[in-house]
Amino acid sequence: MKHTIDSLVGQFERGSLTRRELVQALFMLAASPVLAQERPAGAFRATGIDHVQITVTDLKATQQFYEKLFGVTTTSPSPTQLSLKLGSSNTVSVHSESGPIKPIDHFGIGVEDFSAEAALAAVKRVVPGFKAEVSGTSVFVIGPDGVRIQLVAARK
What is the pLDDT of residues 102-112, one digit of tens each? Predict the structure, then answer.
């Protein structure tokens, strides 16, 4: 849409369009549902990092560390997991596990107009050969270097 607006303004500046024609064209452009919903080149419109999940061996010590250092609010959805709320919309998800761990397990990306089934189909279409699976209401994708990415509905 930006390219179209730039083109219209350029035509106006060169005298190819009158002010009235420019305003009419901009109004029609803004009213056009197809152009208003232009999507970026990627398969998804990401809104940002939804969360990062870390894996730890001592959940209670981790909770106390983040509460004391950052004054975060914590919630515990299960005995082996808690969420650290950073600001108004950022979360570090902490999962407790014994044995060898990967400190960063995965990161989640919020996606507009998200449906797990549609997301899985899009991943398989645009990056065939990469492992992807539905898990609950999200989709996990394994990137080229083994990094796990969780696609979730964007927070409103």
Answer: 778 899 998 88
